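User: Just a sanity check before I run the rest of the batch. Below are the structure tokens for the first item. I only need the designed sequence back.
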């Protein structure tokens, strides 16, 4: 797998100063947690699930969740499990395919060993399980079941807990809940690939739903939870985890109240005015703004429910040439003693010690998503992906 692998090599060469690396499900966890990118959810009941997985992989999807929880009716769980097992076994019989990182979102801890047993050798296609409504009390049985399944099969399995419990939202229980979550995931640190935010569930506790003109950060009660999750679970001191951005619910807008949030000039410069209109029509201007705010607030990657959301997430994950140059300068061995230096672009101050953690994360993101050429911005990346 590699990000933008669906784009022709000669196009990638034009776009990238440093191309995205290749990786597999067996790559180091630190790289995989960064490379998750846009994680596309799909109901496990889909009749053509195996074909859907291959189709999305060919379009640039590198991580998928096959959902047995909220995306399907309670009565359809047995059918979903049976379909999941059958389709993954179909895929496992084919030796000529590359599949994304695949995770199963389960409802109960007991489903983990049961599904692993039923999958048999096809379990090798799974990278792990998504654990819903995660708290310390509720989550520990899931983590214990996953650890036991890994030991029984000898196959590495990761957990991705979803932070969506009302206890995490309510002010009076939030800190205690976060402390418990940290104890649980810290105990199984080697098995936790990333923490996922369930913002839709947060909103439902108050009967809220953000519109296509609003981001999660415009809903203050949600923004406050994101801030506290990052504060306690995503620190850059070695104790933190990758936390992914919330789902964007919209893929077409019939009517909007506010002006579009995409400036015209980046699109005029590369003659992509039609692309801008298409993005606005499909509510992508709000998505692009939320992705940018995710990054500014310490989140990486995003839960996606529509294939059209994948490319914007990946395009805005590419490291700019300016970011890459700054990060390299900050991390030069001779800078070990600290100090302040003017950036190579002569437009900012780089302070070595305070910016070191940022620089290290930036270079890891550069490895996963690549570094754009000096004259390439997100518009060119989007245009190249859409025209492929």
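Assistant: Here's the designed sequence for the first item:
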């Amino acid at each position: 797998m590699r990000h933008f692998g669906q784009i022709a090599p000669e196009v990638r060469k034009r776009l990238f100063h440093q191309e995205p690396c290749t990786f597999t499900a067996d790559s180091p966890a630190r790289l995989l947690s960064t490379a998750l990118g846009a994680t596309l959810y799909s109901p496990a009941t889909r009749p053509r699930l195996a074909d859907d997985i291959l189709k999305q992989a060919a379009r640039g999807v590198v991580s998928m969740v096959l959902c047995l929880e909220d995306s399907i009716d309670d009565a359809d769980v047995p059918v979903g499990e049976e379909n999941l097992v059958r389709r993954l076994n179909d895929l496992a019989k084919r030796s000529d395919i590359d599949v994304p990182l695949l995770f199963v979102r389960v409802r109960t801890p007991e489903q983990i060993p049961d599904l692993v047993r039923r999958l048999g050798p096809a379990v090798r296609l799974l990278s792990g399980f998504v654990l819903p409504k995660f708290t310390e009390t509720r989550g520990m049985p899931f983590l214990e079941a996953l650890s036991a399944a890994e030991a029984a099969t000898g196959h590495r399995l990761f957990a991705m807990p979803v932070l969506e419990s009302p206890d995490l939202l309510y002010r009076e229980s939030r800190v205690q809940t976060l402390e418990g979550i940290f104890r649980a995931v810290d105990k199984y640190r080697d098995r936790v690939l990333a923490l996922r935010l369930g913002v839709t569930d947060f909103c439902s506790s108050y009967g809220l739903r953000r519109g296509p003109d609003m981001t999660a950060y415009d809903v203050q009660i949600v923004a406050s939870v994101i801030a506290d999750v990052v504060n306690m679970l995503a620190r850059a001191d070695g104790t933190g985890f990758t936390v992914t951005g919330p789902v964007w619910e919209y893929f077409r807008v019939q009517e909007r109240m506010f002006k579009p949030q995409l400036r015209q000039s980046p699109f005029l410069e590369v003659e992509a005015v039609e692309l801008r209109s298409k993005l606005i029509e499909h509510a992508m201007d709000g998505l692009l703004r939320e992705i940018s705010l995710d990054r500014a607030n310490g989140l990486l990657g995003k839960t996606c429910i529509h294939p059209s959301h994948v490319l914007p997430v990946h395009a805005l994950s590419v490291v700019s040439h300016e970011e890459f140059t700054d990060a390299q300068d900050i991390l030069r061995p001779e800078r070990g003693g600290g100090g302040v230096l003017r950036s190579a672009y002569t437009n900012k101050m780089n302070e070595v010690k305070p910016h070191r953690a940022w620089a290290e994360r930036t270079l890891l993101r550069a490895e996963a998503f690549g570094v754009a050429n000096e004259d390439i911005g997100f518009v060119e990346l989007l245009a190249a992906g859409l025209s492929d």
